[in-house]
Amino acid sequence: MLKAKKFSLLCCLWGLIFSSVLVPKGISAEASKAFKGQMNPQAFEHYVNGDLYELAGDFSSALLEYQKAKSLQPDVREIRFALARCYLITKDAESARNEALQIEPKDAKTYQLLGECYRALGEIDSALVAYSNSVKLDSTDINSLWYLAVLWQRKDNKEKAIQFWRKVTFLQPFSLMPHLQLASLLFQTKRYDDAISEYKKVLEVKPDDVRTLYELGKIYEVTNDLKEAIKYYQRVLKLNPTNEKLRNKIIALYYRTGQMSKAIKEAETSSAFSPDNPLAQKRLGVLYLSQGEYQKAESLFNSYVESYPNDAQVHYYLGKIASQREDFEKAKGEFEAAISLEDSVPDSWVDLAWAYLKQDSTQKAIQVYQRALRKVKQKAGILYLLGNAYSRQKQYDSAIVVLRKAEENRPHDVRIIFALGSADEQSGEFDLAVATFERLIRIDSTFAPALNYLGYMLADKGIRLNESLKMIRKALEYEPENGAYLDSYGWVLFRLGRFEEAEIQIKKALEIVKDDPIIREHLGDIYQAMGKTERAKKEWERALKLKPDDQKLKEKVQSAK
Fold first, then answer.
1. 52, 89, 395, 545: least buried by Cβ within 10 Å?
2. CA pair distance 102, 85, nearest whole angstrom
3. How far is CA 49 from CA 16, 73, 397, 448, 539, in A?
4. Does the CA dihedral 7-13-15-19 come out positive or negative?
């Protein structure tokens, strides 16, 4: 008690001697003199004591002094303000709010204090109103503007938050936090140019701010300016070279932009940083594989599978490498290993069947496709390949059945419809084939293979020749150097009786496809029609050497003797 009295007396003494200096926090000496005149001496003493206790960090004692001052003069707004503020400091937000509400007239600082109270009580809407009132009275009230931005952001009102963060950044242009918050919201609302501008303002103050550099990389990546994205990600990586997740992103971006040498260089760095990281070794192997560096890729993959033999993907890659070297036995073994580990992925099945096809084992390829159909979910692609394999075996009825199933899954896939039309034609269903190809052309009038195929079919039958000519010309517009299309063009000209023009086109075809028996036969037929029997015979003989079992050609050669 004695100690408190001494402290109070000391305060009074200071108040008498240094009244121009002893002012409460946030109150000027002139303001102190002004409201001192409004207080009686006892109230003023308690008020000053409360302020000194606050300065000393003794908020409980400060609170008691402010309460005594209020009891003596409850109508003095400065006393209520100090009491409300002290309640808030001591975590009694409800009492603080009640005191602040009693202050009249309310100025910007009172509304700001009310905002703090409501925010502490979790009454966000009331806090927004209070802070807004403060800003109406003082447009430079940075504290209220800041919390208006924060609270609108908490309520997920991005537009309001952006509005107030803009005001904060205007008043505090060198404060990084507001610029970062504003940039983030602009990014979220897809105002990418504005977001970039804000992030670059941060870099003007702090050029190596990792968060800002990374966010700029993200924006450029989203806007598909991948080279700029790489530039900013690289700056982050330079500051944090062990960030493997970011390095992986950079590798992927180099890959997407076709900068394969840089992608490989980064992957090699990653591998050096993490020599025991199998994923880094695997990724580097994939990049080597994509560039045709098969020996390097194979070495990494072989090392990898020694420790991780159950990775289906790496067995698949080893199979691809073996296929490139035409070591089909090894390729088949790797593809089978991949399938045994993961049988729902079509790629291994497709490449296994392809290896059999390269060995002229079409029936075994068919068996692979049939096995695949029992395992893979997306069946249309496998059905398409199976249909082609049946056609290769001249099992056209089976091909048609399978290709129709494929078309049910992908009704507008021109590759499937083309294969179906070809199977129809090969099976002798001419009218059905014509209808199929016409349907395909309605779906895609630029699909050159169908234009050529149908045009040739009609020309070979000698019907609808003008239509046939237009179709084949159109096909040649898309692929002018296609030898098969030039042969078709020559053939329809032949059917139209335009032999000299036909000869020119067929010879052009032979310059591109030198050893095709059908084109040689066509040239012989043209010479025969032109009365050049010896030339016709020579061309038919050349065709027969290329296709020695062709009975029709044998008959033509015999008839020319």
1. 545
2. 13
3. 13, 15, 105, 96, 120
4. negative
